[in-house]
Amino acid sequence: KSQICKEVAYDLIRSDKIIGYIALEENVRRTALGLMGIHLNKPILIHPDVVDVAAKRESFEATVGSGNCYLYDHFGSMDSENLANRIRYMVAGCGCEYVFLDHLSIVVSGHDFGDERRFIDNTMTNLRSLVEELKFSLILVSHLKRPGGRGHEEGGLTSLSQLRGSAGIAQLSDMVFGLERNQQDEDLADVTRVRVLKNRWSGQTGLCASLDYSHDTGRISEISMMEERSADI
């Protein structure tokens, strides 16, 4: 999920869009190196010595240091109102057109509020109101509940009913995508299927893409369903 978000964020930055990135499960250094590695087509987060200092400087200036990217330095859970204020500042103060929140589950993880579902509902309502007020795009990551039978890590199908804790995520979002990958498959362990679970614009849902992760470049690229099936054979 995080890697796909970074790919989308990188594409927006290179398209001269201003983005805000709130990664609550990693520090800003990790987020920055992830974006820089995408620019370099090298997994510098895992192998920092694969490129020289000059290349790292160029990739920094093309991504995190471009003036089109704002990172929020925070780890772990946070108060819903505080989160909304940070997003408001990114949009109104920094001019961000897109904000990434990775991920909603950790926002609520450190709170003793008793009713997780209501807390998520309230948070989603506040975030949706903020989107409508400030007219920006919010890309939100959410974990899923464990399904009965085969788990998502083993390629289990995703559905709206599996969104963790609250129906508010599905109800208030315009688009919902589920990611499916069998981590134990010998041939397809690096292939992620993208399933459209909700589409407010046209109503079209179902499998829409297959994405392949390259360990050599650290990049995700789209492959055809035919390529995925041939790998399986």
How would you characterize this protein structure?
With 233 residues, this protein is α/β, with parallel strands linked by helices. The chain is built from 8 helices and 8 strands. It has a 4-stranded parallel β-sheet, with helices on both faces. It has a 4-stranded antiparallel β-sheet with strand order 5-6-7-8. Helix 1 packs across helix 2, helix 2 (28-40) crosses helix 3 (53-62) and helix 4 (80-93) packs parallel to helix 6 (116-134). The longest helix has 19 residues, at 116-134. The protein is globular. The two termini are 27 Å apart. The mean pLDDT is 87.
Question: What is this structure's SSE topology?
Answer:
Layout lengths: L1 H13 L4 E5 L4 H13 L12 H10 L6 E3 L8 H14 L4 E5 L1 H6 L6 H19 L2 E4 L27 H5 L2 E6 L10 E9 L6 E8 L6 E4 L1 H8 L1
Parallel strand pairs: 1-2, 1-3, 3-4
Antiparallel strand pairs: 5-6, 6-7, 7-8
Helix pairs in contact: 1-2, 2-3, 4-6
